[in-house]
Amino acid sequence: MLFRLTADALVLLHLSFILLVLFGGLLVLKWRPALLLHLPAMAWGIAVEWLHLECPLTRWENLMRAAAGDAGYPGGFIEHYVWPVIYPAGLTAQIQLLLGLVVVLLNLGVYGYVVWRWRR
Q1: Rounded to an integer, what distance in angstroms lies between the CA atom of residue 76 and that of residue 80?
Q2: Where are the beta strands (DSSP E) in 9-48?
């Protein structure tokens, strides 16, 4: 039971981290020190997508599920939880590059606005 709860908590943490990567720049608009949290998170998120790295949160979740007697899952968090909701087909390397590009472009826009606002 404890292992299953831990695995579920890791899913929520993972989702929170993904939201931070995508929208953390908006937090910087209200609270400047968030920049110190968001920039490394964004760099990691982009690296995971573009370099096809395994996220340790996925590995830990699978370990907790295995310890609870459940089967883990192949692939990463996005492929397992997010992608089936958005698209029924599998995740390709080209789509992962596109997802990383979305993160870059979204945050370039937000940080461009942040810099413009700070200069005023």
Answers
A1: 6
A2: none
User: Residue 71 and residue 4: Cα distance in Å, rounded?
Assistant: 11
Of 96, 9, 22, 25, whose CA–CA distance to 57 is shortest?
9
> What's the pLDDT tens digit per position in 15-40?
889 889 988 988 988 888 999 999 99
Residues 6+ apart with CB under 8 A from 18: 45, 77, 78, 82
Return the domain boundaries, the chain. Answer: 2-119
Structure tokens at 41: 């998170």
CA distances from 46 to 1, 8, 39, 98 (A): 34, 24, 11, 10
pLDDT at 30: 86
Burial 33-46 (b: 16+ CB within 10 A, else e): ebeeebeebbeebb
Of the candidates 96, 87, 91, 94, the one whose C-alpha atom is nearest the C-alpha of residue 74 is 91
| pLDDT at residue 43 in the model | 93
pLDDT at 57: 83
